[in-house]
């Protein structure tokens, strides 16, 4: 709520790069970029083909707010709900951090670092998907850590109502039900597991929960297919032509709209004019990839798969002692690397600034930098590399905090002036 007041104050001082927001009767400084689409969908439904790129979650929230407090105050109602979710999000995030890092101090540091997100307006103030998606992602991840799989699937299902990348969250359920229980056997025997009744039940259970997570996305595309591809003939104009995407092998309106209107596709965004967006988005990518590959190598070393040099039992123990090299973090690392790669190579790269908050591993990686842990491979000639070996300083951790604070403030000004990144 405080950020909303700051945005309104800045809006009176800063010129607008795009004055489209002034055309709306209920426009405030939080109505920028995709918020126009969300408000339009909430009020009129899906009127234009390009609007089908957005799932209906935030539009439903805006409609609910309108029903409760009226059209004139609907944005204030959404802002109030976001404030409540934000408070509980950080409580859930702290519990999630404590469950994985097993350290109150590291959980506290991670939570403090999460208070400086790379897209503060979309997370704290604007009628955007991010606060709801982030909260539901945290909830589902915590349920996974507690092995409450059905509750996790319900939380991830709700998250998918807001963003399509909620589909990726099903990986946490698959990891917890299938991979984690059967991984020790694979690591010890290095043979294919026997087909047992438990394995069959686990596969079926994971499949059912995955379908539940996918359900909002499937229904969204089915509804679009029914609207555009098999519409009622008495409601069609004489000149109506069925869209080409209806005849594709997998006729999804989402992929069609993303490629047609947003130019999404492999390396489509890689052009010289987009270099500023790549530069802006670089810090989260660098941190996610650096920590991700560090963690994967640490896990491989811990379990004896990386044999480039002999590993002593003492060295193995030092690896296992690090809270950042536990297997419980591995699904988070895989999820973040997969999501980051999708955004880097096939989408608008700067979206990572909005989505980063929904990936706890980013803030755990920042805590890893802040704790002064020396990455594998950075060592002197007299001692083997260990994860617990103290680094000369916490320079990179401080650098991350400096960038986070600076970008936090700059992004607020850019948003208020209707300037990129969106």
Automatic annotation (TrEMBL):
Q: What are the UniProt keywords, alphabetically?
A: Endoplasmic reticulum, Glycosyltransferase, GPI-anchor biosynthesis, Membrane, Signal, Transferase, Transmembrane, Transmembrane helix
Region forming the signal peptide: 1-22
On the tree of life, the source organism's domain of life is Eukaryota
Question: Tell me, what is one Gene Ontology molecular-function annotation carried by this entry?
Answer: alpha-1,6-mannosyltransferase activity
Subcellular location as annotated = Endoplasmic reticulum membrane
> Looking at the Swiss-Prot or TrEMBL record, what is one Pfam family this protein matches?
Mannosyl_trans2
Q: What's in the GO CC field?
A: endoplasmic reticulum membrane; mannosyltransferase complex
Q: What is its EC number?
A: 2.4.1.-
Membrane topology designation? Multi-pass membrane protein
| Major subcellular location class | endoplasmic reticulum
Pathway assignment reads: Glycolipid biosynthesis; glycosylphosphatidylinositol-anchor biosynthesis
Q: Where are the transmembrane segments?
A: 106-128, 148-178, 199-219, 278-300, 321-345, 351-370, 399-418
**GO annotation terms (biological process):** GPI anchor biosynthetic process
**Entry's family note:** Belongs to the PIGV family.
Briefly state the protein's biological role.
Answer: Mannosyltransferase involved in glycosylphosphatidylinositol-anchor biosynthesis.
Protein name listed in UniProt: GPI mannosyltransferase 2
């Amino acid at each position: 709520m405080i950020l909303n007041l700051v945005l309104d104050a800045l809006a009176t001082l800063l010129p607008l790069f795009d004055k489209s927001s002034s055309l709306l009767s209920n426009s405030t400084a939080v109505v920028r970029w995709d918020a126009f689409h969300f408000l339009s969908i909430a009020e009129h439904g899906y009127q234009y083909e390009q609007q089908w790129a957005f799932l209906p979650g935030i539009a439903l929230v805006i409609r609910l707010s309108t029903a409760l407090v009226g059209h004139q105050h609907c944005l204030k109602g959404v802002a109030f709900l976001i404030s409540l979710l934000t408070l509980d999000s950080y409580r859930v995030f702290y519990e999630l951090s404590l469950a994985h890092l097993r350290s109150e101090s590291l959980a506290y540091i991670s939570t403090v670092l999460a208070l400086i997100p790379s897209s503060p307006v979309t997370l704290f103030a604007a009628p955007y998907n991010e606060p709801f998606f982030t909260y539901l992602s945290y909830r589902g991840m915590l349920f996974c850590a507690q092995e409450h799989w059905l509750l996790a699937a319900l939380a991830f299902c709700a998250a998918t109502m807001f963003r399509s990348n909620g589909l990726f969250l099903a990986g946490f359920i698959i990891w917890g039900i299938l991979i984690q229980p059967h991984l020790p056997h694979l690591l010890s025997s290095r043979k294919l597991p026997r087909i047992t009744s438990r394995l069959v039940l686990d596969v079926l259970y994971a499949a059912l929960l995955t379908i539940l997570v996918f359900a909002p996305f499937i229904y969204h595309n089915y509804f679009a297919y029914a609207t555009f591809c098999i519409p009622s003939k008495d409601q069609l104009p004489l000149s109506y032509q069925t869209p080409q995407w209806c005849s594709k092998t997998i006729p999804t309106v989402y992929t069609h709209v993303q490629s047609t209107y947003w130019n999404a596709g492999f390396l489509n965004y890689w052009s010289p004019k987009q270099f500023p967006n790549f530069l802006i988005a670089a810090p989260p990518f660098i941190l996610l990839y650096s920590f991700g590959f560090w963690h994967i190598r640490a896990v491989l070393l811990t379990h004896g798969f990386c044999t480039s040099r002999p590993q002593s039992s003492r060295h193995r123990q030092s690896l296992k002692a690090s809270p950042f090299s536990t297997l419980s973090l591995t699904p988070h690392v895989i999820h973040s690397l997969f999501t980051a790669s999708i955004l880097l190579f096939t989408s608008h790269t700067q979206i990572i600034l909005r989505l980063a908050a929904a990936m706890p591993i980013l803030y755990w990686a920042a805590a890893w930098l802040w704790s002064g842990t020396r990455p594998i491979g950075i060592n002197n000639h007299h001692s083997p590399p260990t994860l617990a070996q103290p680094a000369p300083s916490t320079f990179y951790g401080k650098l991350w905090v400096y960038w986070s604070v600076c970008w936090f403030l700059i992004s607020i000004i850019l948003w208020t002036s209707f300037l990129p990144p969106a």
